[in-house]
Structure formats: C-alpha cells, structure tokens
Design goal:
This protein is mostly helical. It contains one helix and no strands. It is rod-shaped and about 105 Å long. Keywords: Membrane, Transmembrane, Transmembrane helix.
C-alpha cells in the first residue's frame, strides 16, 4: 500500500512540475514575442512620422516652385 501511495504522489508531483514549467516557458515566449512586435511597431511609427514630415516639405517645395514659375510670366 505504501508503495502505491508513494508512486501516486510522485506522479502527481511530476505532472504538476511539468505543467507549471510549461506555463512559465509559454509565458516567457509570449512576452518575448510581444516585445518584438512592439519594436516593429515603433520602427513603423518612426517611418510614418518621417514620411509625414517629408510630405510637408515636398508641399512647401511645390509651392515655392509654383511661385517661381508664376513670377517669370
């Protein structure tokens, strides 16, 4: 009887250790992937901001060219 009881406790302990270690590893992987996605989003946002600034500068350049062409006539 004692052997079966010891074996059942060891089985339960092994199952619990395996389950919790799987949860911890899965959680670490999820956190890592979220961090990588945040880095990608930050890079994307920087590109969007730079593009917006460039579009504004391009509009100003177009207005300057239009003014220069209009002054020649």
């Amino acid at each position: 009887m004692n052997f079966e009881l010891l074996l059942s406790f060891l089985s339960i302990g092994g199952t619990l250790i395996g389950t919790f270690s799987g949860i911890v590893i899965s959680n670490k992987l999820t956190v890592y992937r979220i961090e990588q996605l945040e880095k990608k989003v930050e890079k994307h946002n920087n590109v969007i901001e730079r593009t917006y600034k460039l579009e504004g500068r391009m509009t100003e350049a177009e207005h300057d060219l239009r003014d220069m062409k209009g002054g020649d006539k």
